[in-house]
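Anyone opening a protein record will find just a pair of labelled lines. The record below illustrates this layout.
***
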Amino acid sequence: MPPTVILIRHAQAAHNRDQAYALPDPDLTPLGEQQCATLHDALRHAPGRVGAAANNIQLIVTSPMRRTLQTTQLALRWLLDSSSSSDEQQQRGGGGGRVAIEARADWQENSDSPCDTGSAIATLARPPFCPPISFRSLLEPEPDDDDRYPAKTGRYAFTPEAIARRGLRARAWLYARPEKVVAVVSHAGFLRVGVCGCRFANADFRVFDFDPETKTGTTTAQVAVATPPGHEDQPFRLVEWEYTREKGGGLGRSEKGAFGMESQRWPLAVIGAGAGGALGQRTMEDLPRRFLRQPELEPPPPTPVRVPEEVVDEVPAAEEGESANGAEGKGRLVE
């Protein structure tokens, strides 16, 4: 039987706070660390089935990015403490001690911006992250994995096809796990577009089971980009628990609704056009402009224009409380 899955978005990192998307693999902010403490208590002491699932987590999977590694260690620390109470150990299946943590590249963020591109494994696979986090899957990749983290190429490329296949691969891997409950710490974009079609606020969580009637035989080569995450035709489909769906995440901070590929800000070069485009029949004109990532260029300064006096005379006076651009002489400077 496939496991229950608790999906968690990392807490606030420096690029979230400052919109500093050129910041490489940023760390959590002080507020992010506080959010982890809130998330820790919310999970550990959640009511009913949610609390039972959280205290029965038997495996933690995390993106290898610094903000997710830090969120894992802070927000799930009660599961990592070998001195956990015997009651909690029994709730987790009686194994006692620490819950295993595995970093997997499939759970990294979508874009190829510096803030969403990971650090070299050699800088991560050592204290304070390793131990307890295992980086074995990155240090010893699968034989068919020619793309090495943190490169944003091939299976980790920032394209709709690559992300759809990566999401399918990640869900299929979870589906085959023997644990009763698996927690995953990942990113808003990948969770929304590649995994479940839900939005996540920083340090919020949602709980899912696999659809018992889900398709399980589809290969990554057959995945359809047009099938939105969470759709009934999606292979290895996850169905959210009513508690977190109706509340808007376990902490009630996340936007409700269903979201797909169109909610990702794609580079203009990725969108393509017509049937051969990266989004099938969808063209740039079909997508809301806010979803198209524009080149990050500084806008040019406004050019002052001298308006002839006879034109200025036709400009209505400024409303009370407003300031009118102006200069003495033969005309008025406007921007």
In short: The mean pLDDT is 79. The radius of gyration is 24 Å. The longest strand covers residues 4-9.
